[in-house]
Amino acid sequence: MDNINLALAVVFQLCQSLLVVALAPLLTGWVGQCRAWLQNRSGPGLLQPYRTLHKLFLKEALLADNASPLFRATPYILFGCMWLAAAIIPIIAVDLPFSQAADVIALVGVFALARVFIALAAMDIGTSFGSMGARREMLVSFLAEPALLMVFFTSSLISQSTQLPHIVETFSHHAFVLYPSLAFASIAFLMIMLAENARIPVDNPATHLELTMIHEAMILEYSARHLALIEWASSLKLFAYMTIGFALFFPYGIAEVGNWGALPLAIVALLLKLTVAGAGLAGLEAMLAKMRIFRVPEFLGTAFLLAVLGLLIHFLLGA
Amino acid sequence: MDEISILPIDVVGGVILLWIALGLFGLALYRHKSMICNVVFPLGAALSLLLAVTGLWGLGESADIAVLPLGLPDLPLHLRLDPLSAFFLILLGAASFGVSLYSAGYFKSMKGRVLGLLCLEYHLFLASMALVLLADDAYMFMVAWESMALSSYFLVTTDHKIPEIRRAGFLYLLIAHVGAIAILLSFGVMQAGHGIAAYTFDAMRANPLSSFWSSLAFLLALFGFGAKAGVLPMHVWLPEAHPAAPSPVSALMSGVMLKTAIYGLIRITFDLLDVHLWWWGVLVLALGLLTAIFGVMFAAVQGDMKRLLAYSSIENMGLLLVGIGLVIIFHVYGKNALAALALTATLYHSINHAFFKSLLFIGTGSILHATGERNMGHLGGLIRRMPWVAATLLIGVLSIAGLPPFNGFISEWLLLQAFLLSPGLPNSHINMLIPVAAAVIALAAALAAYVMVKFYGIIFLGQYREPGLEHAHDAGGWERAGLVWLAAGCVALGLAPVYVVQKLDLVTKMLLGQGLGNSTSGWLFIAPVDIERASYSPVYFLLAVLGVMLVTAWVVHRYYHGRVRRVPAWDCGFPAQNGRMQDTAEGFGQPIRRLFEPFFKIEREVPSPFDAQPRYHGQTDDQIWFFLYLPIKQLTVRLSAWTSLIQHGRIHVYLLYTFVTLIVLLAFV
Which of A116, A117, A181 to substitute to test the interface with B, most B CBs within 10 Å? Predict the structure, then answer.
């Protein structure tokens, strides 16, 4: 790759990352607004997450007396990991230079790294909620993580690559083919996305009811800018999962690097997909009820089995 | 005048002799405790480093052979240093360097006489492990193997006045010897009755065996080395012996000694035997999967930190076995590039495990010294009292949980790539097995993260669970040096995979005739097959995360503010909380215990609500004890009881037996 192309690719990379970081709270706001409409409320408006973030950044950070450096570093690590995830995924353009540094297995690793740090930080203060949240989060993740890996494996086997850009290229350049293995994988992915992003039916992002919360229990001790970064990282995570879903199962409209003409179309396609997916998520959440914590392993076990089934079908049928 | 050239094998031999000499020196110095600690152990560590460097040198050379004028008539001792032994010597040297440095500080509090003896056993243990790796005939191998087992047995039973430790040591010795018999028989099969000179490995390489005898030799070797490696169902000694041994010894046993079993299995399978059958691979793969998932499941419910690490070692040995199984399968079907990938992953994981498991074990040693407590439920909050141990162990925990950009991730990544490249094997049964195996590996890796969050969170984070913990002291100078070396190794192995894979290529080329290579130019990206298929760059990864963290922190502090106020933690409206109300290790493992209930044998005593002094007791045991070992024990007891019917201890009865035997024999003649 010569220098001009490389520079162009880096510009694309930066644009995509900044766009994602800026857009992520909007997606959370949109999902919240849809939920409000479905519940017959008028809702806080699309920009509420930005207002919340701004308010939190302005506040004075309160730290527990016994908080260790790990506790203070975790929000930044979390934000860094989610930013990295957003840089790997082909969101508006494929073949970004950074995507070679980490493939889908490393992407699962990034999510795992962030999760381990937030769980450790939750245990740092030593209140009962923190470690309860950490324990539940690890319970959810130890089934969701391998299931996610299996979903990635299925698409990697079809496209002969673990690089996301190549997976996207394979899928988007083909005529529309229905892969039976991917059908299983997509259902599994939906279930994993709900669990990993602390959505109903696994967790409820709007709850602070002691006995049911998972994610909120872990971040109970955070305040001000630390909390803001964690919230922002959570919305980035939701954004990342949605775009992974698009990349794997509906990769149409993503631009090539350097193809400026295709870029507006790519952004419009992305916004359209996000609007539909966000509304769909809100609809799903409005229809489902939160399940008991010990039903969660069954739910995720189903996701895991579906993902493995998808992989097996690929091995058996080669499709 | 002839130029005297020194070969790597000479240096390794010198290191072994000097280790033995140092051990004897330490024994003689038992009155001068500080000499042993400040001179003998650091010198031993320097020798370890020399060994590692020599191994690195020997890795690039062709095989060196030495024949010692010792041994049996017609069978002198043969030594040989080839790339495979050189790699494991590097592993031994690099891990034991850190552990020996650490030992210099750790054993200071020990009584002089015990310390002198321990110093001898410790260095003999190191020397015999190096000899196992060098041995080039069955006799030398068995002598070294048994010295290794015996010296480690004595090290395990250092605190032999405690009955449980004696019991643990006995169990270890018993299983080690059952395994050793199987290995000896395996050598016997490979020697194939060709006289004593055929016990050299060279003769075994040259000796073609039919597939039946090859399979027999392989199965015996798998059993024997499996017993040492803690493969199901011979794993029972590990969780008993590791907690019993002093921490640096546990570190060496888990980090290095278990790898000698992997070395032995690789040596016999790929070097000495030339017939390979596909079902060997399936067997090893299945055993590895069972062992891995079993180990991590039990690690999740442990309350004792060293037992937890021992079960985690079982899991990691399972992963290594999975790697070896894949190598066999790919090799049988002639896919040598894939076999090279799986072998690289296996060897990479071996050295990774040597670093992070040694690190975690010596870390528990510091905690044990500082608090006198092995039960995690009585620890907590130590990150504030022991920053060095906490920081280095955080690296170890992240590595063992297989998180990027540390070393555990890379071997896992390589292993998963091997799975992903496997479609197209001609055997459809194996094609069905492979995705299931990949799923189990992913599950084990995710559970390992659970285990490690539990390990680190319960020990280091939160509030002090007991009042004495606020006086815990951090590790001393030597101990810090050992911890930092091993942690730095985890980081370096994680950041420079291209260099490591290049070195490992020399081993895979020797065993499979094909290396992995790296299809990219430059040292930043590892791409085992093709950059289009898969690539990973830990350096960029780390730089990106760190860069974003720093920029974010700068922006937040610059455009908003950096004000912080320290306040008491929120008490949820219940001010009487104390450190004892946090999650214990049992509490943290409860979801796993509940989820996998059928696999555990659980005994629980739950207090009634009216107890004045409520006491909770929970014990989770291994079902295998009850299904396998106790029946064997009962059978043995019953057989002995039957034999005792004819044993009276009276001399005239025995004379009668002799007489009857004589009559019977005469009747036949």
Answer: A116
Among B398, B435, B595, whose Cβ lies nearest the Cβ of A311?
Answer: B435
User: Which secondary structure element, helix H or strand E, spans residue A248, and what is its range?
Assistant: helix A224-249
Mind spelling out the 3-state secondary structure of B550-600?
A: HHHHHHHHHHCCCCEEEECCCCCCCCCCCHHHCCCHHHHHHHHHHHCHHHE
Interface residue B555 vs chain A (CB under 8 A)? no
Residues of chain A positioned with their CB less than 8 A from the CB of B412: 105
- A60: DSSP letter: P
Residue in A with minimal Cα distance to B554: A76
Under an 8 A CB cutoff, do A131 and B556 touch? no
CB contacts < 8 A, A to B, total: 260
CB-based contact B449 A109, cutoff 8 Å:
no
Contact (CB<8Å) B462/A141 = no
Which residues face B72 on adjacent strands? B75
CB contact under 8 A, A102 and B404: yes
B469-520 pLDDT, tens digit each: 888 888 888 999 999 999 999 999 999 888 888 888 888 888 888 777 665 5
Q: How do residues A190-218 score in pLDDT, each as one tens digit?
A: 999 999 888 888 888 777 776 778 888 88
Tell me the domain boundaries of chain B. 625-669
What lies within 8 Å, CB to CB, of A271 at 6+ separation is none
Give me the helices (H) in B196-267, please. Answer: 201-206, 211-229, 237-244, 247-252, 258-266
- Interchain contact, B446 vs A100, CB within 8 Å: no
What are the pLDDT digits (tens) for B243-284? Answer: 889 999 999 999 999 999 999 999 999 988 888 888 999 999
Q: What is the pLDDT of residues B314-360, one digit of tens each?
A: 999 999 999 999 999 999 988 888 888 899 999 999 999 999 999 99
d(CA B288, CA B322): 5
**Chain A residues in contact with B542 (beta carbon < 8 A):** none
* Nearest-by-Cβ selection for A65 from B531, B552, B566: B566
Q: In the predicted model, what is the mean pLDDT of chain B?
A: 88
Q: What is the 3-state secondary structure (H, E, C) of A210-227?
A: CCCCCHHHHCCCCCHHHH
pTM, rounded to two decimals: 0.92
Work out the pLDDT band at B108, boundaries 50, 70, 90.
Answer: confident
Name the residue facing A80 among B458, B535, B548 (closest C-beta).
Answer: B548
Helix (H, G, I), strand (E, B) or coil at A63: strand
Nearest to B535 among A100, A307, A312 (CB): A100
DSSP structure class, residue B184: H
Q: Given the structure tokens 């620890």, which residue do they identify?
A: B379
Interface predicted TM-score (ipTM): 0.93
The CA distance from A110 to A107, in Å, is: 5
For Cα atoms A221, A66, B389, give the angle at the middle one, nearest 5 degrees: 115
- List the single residue in A with minimal CA-CA distance to B532: A161
Contact B567 A63 (CB under 8 A): yes
Residues 6 or more apart whose CB falls under 8 angstroms from that of B206 comprise none
pLDDT per position as a tens digit, B137-159: 899 999 999 999 999 999 999 88
**CB-closest option in A81, A112, A120 to B456:** A120
**Is the Cβ of B546 closer than 8 Å to some Cβ of chain A?**
yes
CA angle B109, B110, B111 (to 5 degrees): 125
Rounded CA-CA distance B76/B82 in Å is: 19
Give the residue carrying structure tokens 């005469």.
B666
Say yes or no for a CB contact (<8 Å) between B549 and A109. Answer: no
The three-point CA angle B514-B517-B521 to 5° equals 160
Our CA-based measurement puts residue B402 at a distance from the nearest CA of chain A, in whole angstroms, of: 8
Burial class of residue B50, CB neighbours in 10 A (0-12, 13-18, 19+): middle
